[in-house]
Amino acid sequence: MELFSDHDDFTKLATGFSRIERRHKRYMNRALAENGVTGIAYSVIITIAKRPGINQDQLAEAQGVDKSRVARMLRHLELDGYILRELHPEDRRNYMISLTAKGVELHEQIIKITKEWAALISSGIAPGDIEAMIRTMDRILQNLDS
Prior knowledge:
Layout: H1 7-32, H2 41-50, H3 56-63, H4 67-79, E1 83-87, E2 95-99, H5 101-122, H6 127-145
Helix pairs in contact: 1-5, 2-5, 3-4
């Protein structure tokens, strides 16, 4: 049987992914509004926490967004006291980005909120089904990248 032989099945899958993503953004934006963190800024914080010293180009690539968008976001995060940008000691054109103490606190809050979201959306779903969805999604992304 051909997968997605019925256009409605494909549409349902694509629409479902989109709806889940929009609801996730709303959930995170609401939960982090008091910190002034919206959009993909919470994802940027997570990436910086995992890769202290990352530079702006690497961050843009990791987020899948253009460099100018990351630059604007980093400017706001720096002004709000969440990140620190320091010149790279060997490449004065590059900045190493890391979290401040305030940024570390925000990261901990983001992880807590993310766990709450995960519990909410996975309620009643068997762990094996979640693993199968992740494998399937990864395969779809591989197909798109090839």
